[in-house]
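Inverse folding, one chain.
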């Protein structure tokens, strides 16, 4: 088991990539704090982990709120005695729109969850990593962070900010045996996928959306949440002990098939 004895917080773990990652981390031996604003989804993730013999607890947390970030760190320490991995996966999507249609309130909401929240969570986790003699920061960004698309004026910059933040953390914290790496998923078959769509596509079914997106993928299919989860397990494990400040693209070949859009 590659994460045996490790304690991990995964935000946005009530569905999609977060849920798949929580399950995979538990399968690899980690004790998992499942953090999400969705109590039903988060509790279901915990139930799935426990049904497989894993160890997990749920904490309701809105990472845009300082108190919630602090509480989820405290839950990890109080329940399992420490913290080894913080995976900032929670995020807000942005439905396609021109930048001049994006309200200041929408911009702030996306930045607060996608960038400010991870920053705050990392700050609160840092003392626990020092106590543990090291730790791992992970984050879910997006292919759109380094290949920004039109009509994503808040989302793409928020994800690009995560990459830069984690490079700073990697540079500053190597002295503390702390690593920081970012996953860049391509279009993923998760509940969030449809939330990016605008125009006539808003009325399409989830299956129709996935089929449409798959046409622009090199392998002809969307990325699956477990694909990201498997990559996250690797980056969190000792197998990646000499990898920090990096971004790992898991996009199903989307970046090399853009000409097919």
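Residues assigned per position:
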């Amino acid at each position: 088991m590659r994460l045996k004895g490790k304690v991990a917080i995964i935000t946005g773990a009530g569905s999609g990539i977060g849920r798949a990652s929580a399950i995979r981390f538990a399968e690899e031996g980690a004790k998992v704090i499942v953090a999400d604003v969705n109590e039903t989804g988060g509790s279901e993730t915990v139930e799935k982990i426990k049904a497989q013999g894993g160890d997990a607890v749920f904490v309701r947390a809105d990472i845009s709120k300082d108190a919630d970030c602090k509480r989820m760190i405290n839950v990890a320490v109080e329940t399992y005695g420490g913290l080894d991995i913080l995976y900032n996966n929670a995020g807000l999507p942005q439905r396609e729109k021109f930048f001049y249609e994006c309200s200041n309130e929408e911009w702030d909401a996306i930045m607060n969850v996608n960038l400010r929240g991870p920053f705050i969570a990392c700050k609160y986790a840092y003392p626990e990593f020092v106590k543990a003699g090291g730790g791992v920061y992970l984050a879910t960004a997006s292919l759109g962070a380094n290949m920004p698309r039109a009509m994503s004026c808040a989302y793409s910059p928020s994800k690009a900010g995560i990459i830069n933040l984690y490079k700073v953390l990697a540079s500053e914290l190597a002295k503390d045996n702390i690593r920081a790496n970012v996953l860049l998923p391509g279009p993923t078959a998760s509940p969030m996928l449809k939330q990016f769509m605008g125009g006539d596509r808003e009325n399409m079914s989830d299956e129709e959306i996935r089929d449409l997106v798959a046409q622009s993928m090199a392998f002809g299919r969307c990325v699956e949440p477990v694909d990201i989860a498997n990559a996250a397990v690797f980056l969190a494990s000792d197998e990646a002990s000499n990898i920090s400040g990096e971004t790992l693209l898991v996009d199903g070949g989307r970046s090399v098939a853009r000409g097919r859009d």
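The radius of gyration is 17 Å. The first helix runs from residue 16 to 27.
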